[in-house]
Amino acid sequence: MTEKPFNLFVTESANSLIISLFNQYKHMIHNKYLYSKVFFTGLVIIFLSTCQPESPPASPNMEIWKFSGSSMGTSYHVSVRVSAGSVTRKQLQQGIKNTIDTVDRQMSTYKPNSELSLFNRRRSTSWQPLSPALFKVLSVAQQVSKLSDGAFDITVAPLVDLWGFGPSPSPDRLPTATEIKALLPAVGFQRLRLQSQPPAAAKQLPNLQIDLSAIAKGFAVDQVAGYLKNLGLSNYLVEIGGEVRGSGSRPGGQPWRVALEAPVTGQRRINRVITLHNFALATSGDYRNYFEKNGVRYSHTINPRTGYPIRHKLASVSVLASNTMLADALATALMVAGPKAGYALSSAHAIAARFLVHTGTGFKIKETVAWQRQVD
């Protein structure tokens, strides 16, 4: 159940691409039920750059600074186009790390003193004050839950733990039907109440637990993007654990490009290259992180409505959106919904989504009209 960190460099002679695979995992159970995102599982986001000399930059004093590190149980990579004298490298490096670490301190289920962990431990059903950041994430999560009729549900935490994908160690056995049934009454986004003034949340059940694994990293990407924007830096590519957002362009006007990995177990191959023009991209999939027991494969993507790992032919879903938090949550919702219901949901709400469906001999690609309009 452990995925080791790695970097993959592949040369494609056809167009002299160097592909840098930055998605590095810490441990699959730190990812999600929820977390079937590339950074945790599904499609791996691959940053692309050409072997050919770059076009002359728009300004001789303009260059790209790259930063990387670890936080939130995964890795992050940030590329920023800067002009000489606009900001120092040390300032950017520290500011980016502080921004990501702040989100981790607020929303981690692995840090016992995080804001979310403290909320989960309190057995009170009274209103509990929230930071503006946590309130914003909970609000968007609840909206996606309503949109998806519960396919996305942050109250799935008890089931995540039961199946061994949460912060608590689990025995080396499958949960019983009785154990799953006993937890289902404590799962349901309708059991979490929110108020905006002042920001607060209340549990309808004392044992309600929240897991933000499928949305917090997307929010962290957006926070870094906001930090860079406040510094007057509008050209960047930000990735945290596979969730990615691009703005502006590289020097010379070259677009930021990323690639989606083909969902083939045991192999790393490019399936689709995406140009990010002020968009965010998230992917959810079930073919990287799973475990096998008695010859049966169990995905770590759990359907919060049934309590069981998903069992359908959808291999992965990629979503383009205006912000990474929304793309992150929607990709998970569509992955849980499955190929038919997920496609119908995304088409009905003009969600830019791309589905890769198992056919038995390969994969079938289904793209919504909104996806085709944005990538073509």
Secondary-structure map with pairings?
Layout: E1 8-12, E2 17-21, E3 45-50, E4 62-71, E5 74-83, H1 89-107, H2 115-121, E6 128-129, H3 132-147, H4 157-162, H5 177-183, E7 192-195, E8 200-203, H6 216-230, E9 236-240, E10 243-247, E11 256-261, E12 270-276, E13 279-285, E14 290-293, E15 296-299, E16 314-321, H7 324-337, H8 339-348, E17 352-358, E18 363-367, H9 369-375
Antiparallel strand pairs: 1-2, 2-3, 3-11, 4-5, 5-9, 6-8, 7-8, 9-10, 10-13, 11-12, 13-16, 14-15, 16-17, 17-18
Helix pairs in contact: 1-6, 3-7, 6-7, 7-8
Description:
The chain is of the alpha+beta class. 27% of the residues lie in helices and 28% in strands. The chain has 9 helices and 18 strands. The strands form 4 sheets. Strands 4-5-9-10-13-16-17-18 form an 8-stranded antiparallel β-sheet. A 5-stranded antiparallel β-sheet has the order 1-2-3-11-12, with no helix packed on it. It has a 3-stranded antiparallel β-sheet with strand order 6-8-7, with helices on one face. Strand 14 (290-293) and strand 15 (296-299) form a beta hairpin. Helix 3 (132-147) runs parallel beside helix 7. The model is unreliable at 1-46 and 49-58 (pLDDT under 50).
In short:
By secondary structure, the chain is an alpha+beta fold.
Question: Unreliable segments (pLDDT under 50, ≥5 consecutive)?
Answer: 1-46, 49-58
Enumerate how many helices there are, as a single number: 9
Largest sheet: 8 strands, antiparallel
- Overall 3D form: globular
Q: Spell out the helices and strands N to C.
A: EEEEEHHEHHHEEHEEEEEEEEHHEEH
Widest sheet: strand ordering: 4-5-9-10-13-16-17-18
